[in-house]
Amino acid sequence: MQFIETRGNDGKKAKKVNFSDAILSPSASFGGLYVPEELPAFDRAFLDRHLGSSYKELAGAVLQAFGIDIDSSTIQAALERYDLFDDPSDPVPLVQIEEDCFVSELFHGPTRAFKDMALQPFGYILSKLAQQRGERYLIMAATSGDTGPATLETFKNQPNIQVACLYPDGGTSDVQRLQMVTEEGQNLKVIGVKGNFDDTQSSLKALLASKDFHDELALRDIKLSAANSVNFGRILFQIIYHIHSYLELARKGVIKIGDAIYLVVPSGNFGNALGAYYAKKAGVPIRKILIASNINNILTDWITSGVYDLTHRSLIRTESPAMDILKSSNIERVMFDKFGAERTKELFESLESEGKFVLTEEEAAQLREDFDATFSSDTEGEEVIALYANRGYLLDPHTATCLKAYRDLRVEQLPTVIYSTAEWTKFSPTIAKALGHRAEGDIEALKWISENQRVAIPPMVSGLFEKTIRHTIIVDKDSIKEEMLKFL
Ligand SMILES: *Cc1c(COP(=O)(O)O)cnc(C)c1O
Fold first, then answer.
1. With 90 as the cut, is the pLDDT of residue 448 above it?
2. How far, in Å, is the centroid of ligand 1 from the Cα of 325?
3. For 91-112, how does the pLDDT look when each residue is reduced to its tens digit (9 = 90+)?
4. Pairing of strands 34-36, 2-5
5. What is the best residue among 103, 105, 106, 114 to mutate for testing ligand 1's pocket, by most ligand atoms within 8 Å of CB?
6. Considering only CA atoms, which of 78, 77, 76, 81 is closest in space to residue 111?
7. What pLDDT score was predicted for residue 200?
8. What is the secondary structure of 159-171 as a DSSP string?
9. What is the 3-state secondary structure (H, E, C) of 263-275?
10. HSE toward the beta carbon, residue 112, CA cutoff 13 A
């Protein structure tokens, strides 16, 4: 399978590239993204065939259907990363919380958030490719909390890859910070930046755009890649679990193969939702994908009105920080799929120059064939957390936004899967607050919830508080480059 560009070709880059090139150098012409030239069929016959498959078998079949240029032993070894999950035979459990509502738990990996689903196997493949080509790569990430730990964890001690991770000092939870600053691995660098996440992210963008920095990298024979969800390598692994959820409902006897279901996806950069869109397009019977947001509800506007407008917005900090995003990267891939390269380029140029784009009525209607959307405030989220905690199920604040979409947006009473993107342990002070307890920091919140709700704290979380801190550097925005050069 070949990959093409969402904003068309500039005559300098190749018009079509292999999967390996698309993931090693993920930026396409005109600032666009790579997308598969066509999709395989995950139709009824495929679903029937995989009713008895394990997660890894299904994943292997999905990757094979995409015909990517990665050898099968590398793919097998990459999929073995799912053996690090809590239950290797069931890495993504499906839990019933209502008569017709099921939670697909995507957080059973090493860093307790859904980023592990894709980053774990992706990290292995990227490092293997770099070794095969005899090239060295630098991955830089700015994180508000979940991407950083998952990126460090997947690449630690992997040959030919160095990772630098920038986080806003004081802007993450204790658990998230400890996951980063205690990480071992000679090839990792973690830098706290004075300022908020926006400052951190813009410093990284400035650094990546500076010729000076590129010259320094060239001098050291290091290439740049990216591990965020602009990289199709991550999206590929985010198609698999949507097919898996469907099969799980069939295995539980809730549906027969062919019956329609709803999916509810808590969204930020729209990578998770894009995976669902590709699964639907490839033939999985999904009636609609319901998009849940917090009050940074630009995706709700985009889907319900066709207007994407940054001009009257600034980012608001919420209790679901991984969804505090205004420029959502992966909507571009949906728009390309529906409206083509020329229109996509026009719309994103408008977004860059005027801070906004407006779809036609017809285009907006096309979007609503696949999606609907709503958003929740922090207070609404806390009510949902309290409601389900009283029934014995703990939801994290991101997952909690899904319940409103489940209640309000379904037109038919079809079985529904909502995605849980983080374990409660990553956002314990918010959960304690929802249950009426003001905690002083994560460790107190974790213990209080553990006792009150009779749930165990997993060892990789409780152990964090005893681990040696290995990364202590906290710098001003202006000193990031200097720190990076020391590391390289
Ligand atoms: C990253 C993340 C999201 C958003 O996922 P996207 O694919 O960027 O839409 C939601 N919840 C949690 C906990 C996350 O870490």
1. yes
2. 10
3. 999 999 999 999 999 999 999 9
4. antiparallel
5. 114
6. 81
7. 87
8. TTEEEEEEEETTS
9. EEEECCCCHHHHH
10. 19
Q: Ligand 1 center to residue 148 CA distance, Å? A: 12
Q: What is the pLDDT of residues 47-73, one digit of tens each?
A: 999 999 999 999 999 999 999 999 999
Cβ < 6 Å from ligand 1: which residues? 113-115, 146, 229, 266-273, 322-323, 398, 421-422
Q: Which structure tokens are listed for 400?
A: 């909690």
Q: How many whole angstroms from 12 Cα to the centroid of ligand 1?
A: 33
Compute, in angstroms, the gap from residue 420 CA to the centroid of ligand 1. Answer: 10
> How many CB atoms within 10 Å of residue 414?
16
3 state SS of 318: coil
Count Cα neighbours of 176 within 13 Å in the Cβ-side half-sphere.
28
DSSP 456: P
Token pair for residue 99? 């008569």
The pairing of beta strand 101-105 with beta strand 188-193: unpaired
Q: How far is the CA of 436 from the centre of ligand 1 (A)?
A: 26
Q: Which of 115, 395, 421, 427 to mutate to test the pocket of ligand 1 (most atoms within 8 A of CB)?
A: 421
| Amino acid 23: pLDDT | 95
Tokens of 379: 């207070």
| Ligand 1 atom at minimal distance to the Cα of residue 422 | 13
Max alpha carbon distance in the chain (Å)? Answer: 62
Name the burial class of residue 360, with classes exposed (0-12), middle (13-18) and buried (19+) by CB atoms within 10 angstroms of its CB: exposed
Number of the ligand 1 atom closest to the C-alpha atom of 272: 7
pTM of the model: 0.97
> Which of 234, 398, 426 most suits a substitution to test ligand 1, by most atoms within 8 Å of the C-beta?
398
What pLDDT, on a 0 to 100 scale, did the predictor assign at position 170? 87
Contact 9, 30 (CB under 8 A): no
Domains of the chain: 90-111+233-458 (3.40.50.1100)
The average confidence (pLDDT) of the chain is 96
Give residue 45 CA to ligand 1 midpoint distance, Å: 31
In angstroms, the first-to-last Cα distance of the chain is 35
Mean pLDDT of 19-38: 95
CA of 322 to the centre of ligand 1 (A): 5
Phi, psi of 98, deg, nearest 5: -145, 165
Task: List, for residues 327-380, the tens digit of each pLDDT value.
Answer: 999 999 999 999 999 999 999 999 999 999 999 999 999 999 999 999 999 999
